[in-house]
Structure formats: structure tokens, C-alpha cells
């Protein structure tokens, strides 16, 4: 009993010793969890009968590894069971994105000739309204069919309040739509790499199983960027379908890198929100702890919780509102903590 009483008496002393170490710097890490890079898994043409392997093969493989993907929805192709399934996927943290109403496209892939009867409002805005009506979900990202779109169509999307980003699309081929995205890139021109079995139009060449897919994820880690992987089906009859062994090797690699804290696997809107929060909601130290500057309109528009990297001689005890924040040691007097810019100052206890 005496020992317990003694220890109890010591506790406030220990707590105040921790309190004594001031924070010496704070910043928002480029990617969540202080990962070296970010990566998005995306499957186009969802609801089209040709890509049955997304549901049959890809999603169970991802699910088993706790990975979330984005699916490009062709609105007109969705049946009642697809809408119900999309609702489930949304609840699990997957992100459906607008891949237009009919996928007729604005420009022919290859020739770049205008597609007869294209109507941007019908293809994009009606697809948006249909998704909202059937699932209650508002798309916030778009991938144009064949990644081709006129400047007018792209400008129309940018004016829609729900759209926070778009996959890079052009009205001419100039080779710059594929690539890596920096931590300050344009959210309406998110570069990608499309899976191509023999690597013909990919940034990479095939090698060991999963090679083309893995190289694009690895590029994010090596260059500190965000890479976006576009695929269609998996082991089905779809356009350039990914073989099962390739996909499994890719998913294993992603899980391994995510578990090691090197790669942040996230859906497009989550990465865009994170990146814009970092850009528009600045952080600084003050005498009580950490203050977010949320005065910018774009801070309020994009804000999501972000990872703060703090330096302090010892582990800080931090609180935001009534919530105690979990502090993770990152070595060399660095500490990581997740905080929400819209939840008020982070106070040192
Ligand atoms: Zn497509």
C-alpha cells in the first residue's frame, strides 16, 4: 500500500516533467502518416459487364489486405444490385468516381475525332445526379473516358462545387498525362499510368509478376510523390485486364509498403484533400501549443485531418478539444500526431 501511495505521489511530478519540454517546430507531413509517398488503386468501367473481375477478383484481394480502391462508374450501366453494392463500398471507404453516363467519350481514342452526339452536361452532370439519386453519394473526382476531354469540358467540371479533382485528360496526345504527382500538383490534372499487359503505353516495362504495377507504386516511394494506377478488370475479358498473379503480387507489395509506413494507399479525393489542406491550412506554434490558420476559403473547402510532425525533447501530451491525441515517436526528437484543422487549437497539457 505504501509503495502505491508513493508512486501515486510521484505521478504528478512525472507529468509536469513531460509538460516542461516545449515544442520546437511543427509542420504538416507531405503525406499521411509521414509516408514517403502516396498511391491510388483505380479500376475504370465499374458496372460494365466486361469488368466482372473487379468484383470477382480484385476487390476480394484488396479486402483481404485492408486496401481501398477507387472505381470509375459508368452510370448508365449500373443495375439495382450495382447501386446497392456501391453503397456498401462507399461505407467501407472505397471511392466511386464519375466515369460518365455512357462512356461514349468526347473524342475518339486514337484518331481524336469528335464523338458524335457528345453532350458534356448529360454525360457528366446527369451521371452525377444519377449517382446521387441512387446512392446518396456525390462524386468528387472524375476520370474522363479514354482520359480525353476538351478544355471546355474540363472547365465545366472545375466549376462544379462537388468536384475537387480530375484525372489528367487532354484533347491532344502530348505524352504528359502519364506521370508522377508532386505534393503540390494540380488537383484537376492528376497524372496516372494505365496498365497495359506488354507495357506499350505504360511508363514501365513488364518483368517479374506485378512488375508494371509495382514499379509505379515504388516510384511514389522513391520520388516522394503520389502515383495513380489506372486499371480495368482483373482476370476477365476487359481491355488489358490484369492477370491474377500480377494483381496479387501488386496487392502484396502495397500491403507490405503500407505496413512499413513507407506508402500511403488512399483514394483520389482523400489524397487531394490532404494535399490541399497542407497547402491552405497553415500551422504554427504559439505559447499554448499549435494553431491552425483556417481563414483561407480553400482551407475550409478541403480540410481533413492531417499528420503533424512535431519536434520536442520529450513526448508531448496533446489535446484538441476534449480529445487526447495519440502521439507516435518518429525518432530524433520527432513526434507524429493526427489533428483536424477544423477542430480548434492543439493544446500542450
Ligand atoms: Zn473507361
TrEMBL record:
Signal sequence, renumbered to the chain: 1-20
Keywords: Signal
Record domain NodB homology: where: 52-159
BP-aspect Gene Ontology terms: carbohydrate metabolic process
Domain of life, source organism: Bacteria
GO molecular-function term, one example from the UniProt record: hydrolase activity, acting on carbon-nitrogen (but not peptide) bonds
InterPro entries for the chain: Glyco_hydro/deAcase_b/a-brl, NODB_dom
Entry protein name: Polysaccharide deacetylase family protein
Species assigned in the record: Chitinilyticum piscinae
Amino acid at each position: 500500500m505504501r509503495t502505491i501511495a508513493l508512486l501515486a505521489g510521484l505521478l504528478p511530478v512525472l507529468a509536469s516533467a513531460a509538460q516542461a519540454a516545449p515544442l520546437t517546430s511543427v509542420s504538416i507531413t507531405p503525406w499521411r502518416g509521414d509516408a514517403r509517398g502516396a498511391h491510388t488503386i483505380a479500376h475504370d468501367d465499374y458496372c460494365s459487364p466486361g469488368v466482372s473481375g473487379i468484383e470477382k477478383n480484385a476487390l476480394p484481394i484488396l479486402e483481404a489486405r485492408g486496401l481501398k480502391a477507387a472505381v470509375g462508374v459508368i452510370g448508365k450501366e449500373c443495375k439495382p444490385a450495382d447501386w446497392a453494392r456501391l453503397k456498401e463500398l462507399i461505407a467501407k471507404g472505397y471511392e466511386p468516381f464519375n466515369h460518365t453516363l455512357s462512356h461514349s467519350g468526347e473524342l475518339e481514342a486514337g484518331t481524336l475525332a469528335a464523338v458524335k452526339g457528345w453532350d458534356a452536361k448529360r454525360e457528366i452532370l446527369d451521371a452525377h445526379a444519377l449517382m446521387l439519386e441512387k446512392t446518396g453519394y456525390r462524386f468528387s473526382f472524375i476520370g474522363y473516358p479514354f482520359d480525353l476531354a476538351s478544355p471546355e469540358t474540363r472547365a465545366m467540371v472545375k466549376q462544379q462545387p462537388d468536384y475537387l479533382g480530375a484525372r489528367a485528360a487532354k484533347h491532344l496526345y502530348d505524352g504528359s498525362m502519364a506521370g508522377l504527382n508532386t505534393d503540390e500538383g494540380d488537383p484537376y490534372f492528376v497524372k496516372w499510368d494505365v496498365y497495359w499487359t506488354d507495357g506499350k503505353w505504360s511508363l514501365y516495362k513488364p518483368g517479374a509478376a506485378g512488375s508494371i504495377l509495382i514499379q509505379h507504386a515504388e516510384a511514389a516511394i522513391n520520388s516522394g510523390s503520389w502515383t495513380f494506377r489506372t486499371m480495368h478488370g482483373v482476370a476477365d475479358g476487359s481491355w488489358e485486364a490484369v492477370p491474377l498473379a500480377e494483381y496479387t503480387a501488386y496487392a502484396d507489395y502495397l500491403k507490405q509498403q503500407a505496413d512499413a509506413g513507407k506508402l500511403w494507399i488512399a483514394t483520389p479525393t482523400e489524397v487531394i484533400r490532404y494535399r490541399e489542406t497542407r497547402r491552405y491550412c497553415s500551422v504554427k506554434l504559439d505559447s499554448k501549443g499549435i494553431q491552425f490558420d483556417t481563414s483561407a476559403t480553400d482551407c475550409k473547402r478541403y480540410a481533413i485531418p492531417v499528420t503533424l510532425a512535431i519536434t520536442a525533447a520529450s513526448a508531448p501530451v496533446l489535446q484538441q478539444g476534449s480529445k487526447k491525441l495519440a502521439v507516435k515517436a518518429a525518432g530524433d526528437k520527432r513526434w507524429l500526431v493526427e489533428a483536424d484543422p477544423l477542430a480548434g487549437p492543439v493544446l500542450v497539457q
